[in-house]
Amino acid sequence: WGATASTGKLEHWLFEIGTSFKTYSVNSSFTDPNASDGSGRSLHENFNLVYTITAYLKPRNHPWNIGLACTNLDYYLVNQSTNPFFNLQGRYRTEKGLTFLLESWYKQAGMLNISANHFGYFFRGGIAWEF
């Protein structure tokens, strides 16, 4: 679970900040069968920092735009605050409600800690239709 707040008035910048709560759990087949109290089955991370800082070339509501972001969240992935993702994004919105998207992401591994998470580049493209 989590919540974020963002700026809405700045033309060339987007700032989002928030917090998230994570719980990692394993089912009973992976725990000690002799432990009757259920200990060791879950791990809680409370009040994790969630952020996004994006700079845009044009004003945010312009029909086409290019942006560069530093963030620790993607659609279904919320990373630790010390492991930011870098995102170069391009958008083009037509008059008929279609938006064409192209993004290039760099996910680094374990900055400022001993985490050995995944890392690499990926590209994402798509079309969003507001009807």
Radius of gyration: 19 Å
Label the structural class: mainly beta
**Could you estimate the helical fraction of the residues in percent?**
under 10%
- Count of helix runs: 0
How many strand elements? Answer: 7
> Strand sequence of the main sheet, in spatial order?
1-2-3-4-5-6-7
Average pLDDT figure: 83
Give the overall shape, derived from the CA principal axes: elongated
Describe the largest sheet: 7 strands, antiparallel
The separation of the N and C termini measures 29 Å
Identify low-pLDDT runs.
Answer: none
- Beta-strand content bin: over 45%
Order of helices and strands: EEEEEEE
Structure, described:
The chain has strands at 2-6, 13-25, 42-56, 64-71, 85-93, 98-107, 120-129. By secondary structure, it is mainly β. The chain has a 7-stranded antiparallel sheet with strand order 1-2-3-4-5-6-7, with no helix packed on it. The protein is elongated. The chain starts with a strand and ends with a strand. The mean pLDDT is 83.
Question: Helices and strands in order, then pairings?
Answer:
Elements: E1 2-6, E2 13-25, E3 42-56, E4 64-71, E5 85-93, E6 98-107, E7 120-129
Antiparallel strand pairs: 1-2, 2-3, 3-4, 4-5, 5-6, 6-7
